[in-house]
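TL;DR need structure tokens for one chain.
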Amino acid sequence: MIKLEQLSKKYKSATHYSVSNINLDIEEGEIFGLLGPNGAGKTTLISMLCGLLKPTSGSFHINSMNFIANEKALKHFLGIVPQEYALYPSLTAYENLHYFGCMYGLKDHALKTKIHEHLKILGLSEFANKKIKSFSGGMKRRVNLIASILHQPKVLFLDEPTVGVDVQSKSVIIEFLTKLNKNGTTIIYTSHHLNEAEHFCTRVGIIDHGHIISVGTPKELISNQIDAEHLEDVFLAVTGKALRDHV
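>> reply
TL;DR here they are.
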């Protein structure tokens, strides 16, 4: 479904590449976890694959289509859930979803039906006409998710989709994404919740300093690392324990 060949990105003011010569294949139907410390290159890599950033060098294809040559077609093929809320706080949940649905070309009764179906599934029906600015973090995350999948994307990018939410919201979001995947959506997911990733992802890639340093199923990575019992043990073994605070 996704093929990266020597993909690299260096920002104009930077002295080092944020993403460097990455080769990677992601198969159709996978839940692929892209894991790494702060500043490892996760968001930069996803931003390139979504067409938000231009690579410095290298190339990638999604569904055998080159993004540069097929940008418009591919944008309808993709869904994106950014780390920051991509919602208008002064609009209601329904108004936000109607706006984003229209942007994807959805119309009239079909759009209205989709919105109400997904609000019900994610436990938000009674808040449909409440303004987003009054919502909790977990509620905003769920509306953010609905906005990204109304057009039924074949590939869904999730950048920290459960950050800052309570256990109940996290459970609902993961359950919804699992069902979405079983219905044919390929998912690329980033998170710092390694226990969540261990149980949610079918395969993971650990990225650090712009390089993919380990790829495999969670079970494979754990079994291949001496004394590792969980994915967190593998993560610390390959990326180190040094703090990654940065500004």
